[in-house]
Amino acid sequence: MSDTTTQRPVEPGPAPAHTGPHGYASDKEAYLKRMRRIEGQVRGIARMIDEDVYCIDILTQVSAVTKALQAVSIALVEDHLGHCVVDAARSSEAEGAAKVREASDAIARLVRS
Which of 45, 60, 71, 75 is deepest in the core (most CB within 10 A)? Predict the structure, then answer.
């Protein structure tokens, strides 16, 4: 009996999980404060829609929330590169390469969004 299944090339999985504190750990409270502020802005937008506020005013607030989230994203990327990627590269070339690929993929997702 022959096996009719085709074998696909094995793709590398995600980079190993970082076991120590994450790059943002020292700024965790600041990140949480920023996210609570953004959460409040989003609730404000929902309220504006509920209250039939002028479209352009709502779009202005959506733009502000988008920029705030982008700022958080950039800061997280910087923390990740400066901490997680650097630590992985110090550990081994393979771990460093995996973390760089992971970071590149995350940046690509951010750019597309």
Answer: 45
Cβ–Cβ contacts within 10 Å for residue 109, how many? 10
Angle at 72 between CA 78 and CA 97, to 5 degrees: 30
Measuring CA to CA, which residue among 93, 98, 105 is closest to residue 18?
A: 98
Under DSSP, the state recorded for 20 is S
Of 66, 20, 23, the C-alpha closest to 42 is 66
| Euclidean distance between CA atoms 112 and 63, whole angstroms | 16
φ and ψ at 78, to 5 degrees? -60, -45
